Amino acid sequence: MRRLHLLLRRHGAFQLGSLLGLAFRALAIRVFVRRDTRELRLARALGRTFGRLRGPFAKLGQFAALRVDGVAPALRDAFVELRDHVPPIPFHWIRAQIEAELRAPLSILYREIDPTPLGAASIAQVHAAVLPDGRPVAVKVQYPWLARSLPFELGLLRLGVRVSAGRDAARAPWLDEFESGVREELDFVREAAVAREIAANLTDEAQVVVPGVIASHSSARVLTMERLPTLPLSALAARGIPARPVLETILRAYARQIFEDGLFHADPHPGNLYVIDEPGAVHAPRVLFLDFGLSKRLTPVLAHELRQGILAMLRRDLDAFVAGMVRIGAVAEGSEAGVREAVASVFAQLGGEAGGALSLSGPRVLSLKDQAKQLLYETPGLSLPNDLLLYAKTLSYLFALAREIAPDVDPMPLMVPWLLRFLAKRAPGPGATTVSAANPR
Question: How many domains in the chain?
Fold first, then answer.
């Protein structure tokens, strides 16, 4: 109740109720169909409010930005900035959270810690610090109210969606998937384990660096990791660092995670990828990967279905492709005819490409991606598993990153060998579980 009181005091009952109601309606029944000025203004106001509310509210916005199959473009665009742009909270709350989690005074835990955060996001903010032995570290601290308020806030969001959805209440099963994802990201023990596993998987990639976890200074809600001097990708040209080897390192690391390991860092935006600032960076730049909260492991069944779907697409086998979508629960009952028509239009476009789908250039892939997003949104009864959307989003981010930092480099030839090895893998053995769009885990 204290969290509700703070929400009402900060935003006012009318504003909070109106904006939450708008969000529930938009997510449940797609109210943002036209991109007129009023709707864009409302969408942006909603995005700002969810950012201030943080926690599951901001995460709901991020989730909505991903759901190209059910949320209108105006609303998705308004939520994109929620990825890593929220106002920080006062440092005395951060101090109290660290000391409660690590059970020691801050002065003993760290030689020094900067009260001004390096960054603030939806569930935590990060502070630069120095350990007693002199090692520089970054301390990710979860907002102190989230663990206690999460059940109430998730319940509020669930109730709001169910009430506002009305006849479309059947669209609410995606909430199970959303809630599961939020709980995963709030578990810093899980994030630390993922970081260690990805580091181990990439141990023979000399140009890839994953910062080490400082276990003695980490818990379920505080995560301390090594801090290295870095350069943003936007600063490469100014420092004389060639973009091509940096991009090749990033693409190779992600291709391995996505197509071979099955566990991948699912947020490859420039705020999570840096070049280490060191004397050898001009000749052999090393890339630092940060923030493993949003990471995914494809289940064997979903990986198998993805493989079969890509093979069906390459063969332009419409029956096999739609059958796979039905198996993963992506097609609502009674919607198969409309989905077939939508998929057939995509296949027709691919059929006109010289050399087939594997010969597409990076810019053409991005162009087709935008068309596919629109098609997903406009096709009734089509709802993809969130893990599959994250998979596609990660790949599209990589192609967009290539266009941004090295427009003369085509990422497709670098990714295709890994894709071919992925397609050649065998199907999962007996005992594999099924997967659905509502809950693919």
Answer: 3
